[in-house]
Amino acid sequence: MEVNFIQGVIDQDLAEGRYQGVHTRFPPEPNGYLHIGHAKAICLNFGLASENNGWCNLRFDDTNPSREDTEYVDSILEDIRWLGFEWRGEVKYASDYFERLYEFACELIRRGKAYVCELTPDEIRDYRGTLTEPGRPSPWRDRPAEENLKLFDRMRNGDFPDGTMVLRARIDMGSPNLNMRDPVLYRMLRAAHHRTKDDWIVYPMYDYAHPLSDYLEGITHSICTMEYEDHRPLYDWVLEALELRDCPRQIEFARLNMSQTVMSKRLLRSLVEEGKVSGWDDPRMPTICGLRRRGYTPEALRDFCARIGVAKANSTVELGYLEHCAREDLMARTPRVMAVLNPVKVVLTNYPEDRVETLEAELNPEDPGAGTRAVPFARELYIEAEDFMEEPVKKFFRLAPGREVRLKHGYVILCEEVVKDPATGALVEIRCTYDPETKSGTNSQKKVKGTIHWVAAAHALSAKIRLYEPLYTEEQFNPNSMIQLENCKIEPWLGQAKAGERFQFIREGFFSLDRDSGEDGLVFNRIVPLKDSWAKMEKNK
Ligand code: ATP
Ligand code: MG
Fold it and tell me: Which of 29, 73, 246, 401 is 20 to 30 A distant from 439 in Cα terms?
């Protein structure tokens, strides 16, 4: 695999003896479900740790109690494991360190590097200045340490209303980097925390909690996305102001953006809350649980993350590329069976009414080890409506009046007559004859131009099939992103399928059995269609 630039930094750090090993962490905020962008960060952090014989922690960044929930914690644990990664030791929480972080803050105060500020949030913003104007010092900036310590303790005890006092770093109100203009380190917030409940009234800010949590865990390389680049001076300042040793270093990389979907938790949550999708695991969602339910494998997601690479420049990856990775993975692992999405009846007039043949068909022609299945063949069949044209256009080589076509695994049939409803003109059935000399796998192979899939009418099972289109088109939610076909006909062999199992429906794509299947029948998700515009593009390059 291509070596990414972060591995380059690590190699240099190890060569220079800056660090003895490579210790990373994945730090999700438990305020939503993980998405494919998080998968990129997970593969990167866990991947770098294992490639360098180090370890990776899982640490929940739970410093903002108002939006967090254990439901999200549980889903995140499940998704990381499903992706195939295991963190070192116990799951960590930033909230585990609240007491230590509080002590560090007191130390900053004693060192004259933090102070309690009584400006309102609006005043703090106003005093901060702009990109072109320096900030102004808070009137509380030069309070004596003793007084700051007492006030900070009283903040902790809840002696003041929320929002009236904050603890700020004492850095530089003239810094060109706005993050360095005495940023807030602690705020008061009377909100129940999902783990520490009502123990705390002061909560640390991310920019303060993160470097110290990394430090406390012995992280060496703290990998995050580009928007934190301007926060790196603050990350380093916190550690330096406390004169800590063997400190972690922050390295930023470009977040994953994808076309035709959304990746922000806020937007994903609103799709769920507005009922536009059935939940976080709706198969259209770019969430890990949504992709899992759709039928993606962890291997396909890991392969995708490896192939898109890691860089500093922002870019957008085509949704089609993810589908391409899925297709390559599914091609090798799925049994190939027949399902008719839009059935139309075919009657073989010269086939005995009471006869049923059992054809033996390979489950995967490329993998003899996959075995075979029994496919019943009888007088009445269903074929795909699209595979018949009463007035065939040029280059249509499938079934049409007077034309022959091969039934996959079966016989060559000839279309003799088309029966329509006299009142509506709708197609009722297609009458054909079969040629008994043309059975697949025998010597008498008649050459015809088209081969189509089919199922035996009396033996087929009915199923619902959900077809998916991109969740977003032209930056808008796509209301047609799911279409459910109600009356599909599938091979009886599929009756034994279990939820989550994946198949290739020949000529139609890759499908997985959805957990909505039950007494009302089977429900399949189309993972991806067979057509691969990516493979074509690569070939034509
Ligand atoms: P969102 O903006 O979707 O709410 P977030 O960055 O707030 O995401 P976190 O839970 O804080 O979500 O993310 C955990 C880790 O995953 C962080 O290190 C973050 O940088 C990384 N991450 C989040 N989104 C992406 C993405 N699209 N591509 C790569 N990494 C990401
Ligand atoms: Mg975040």
Answer: 401
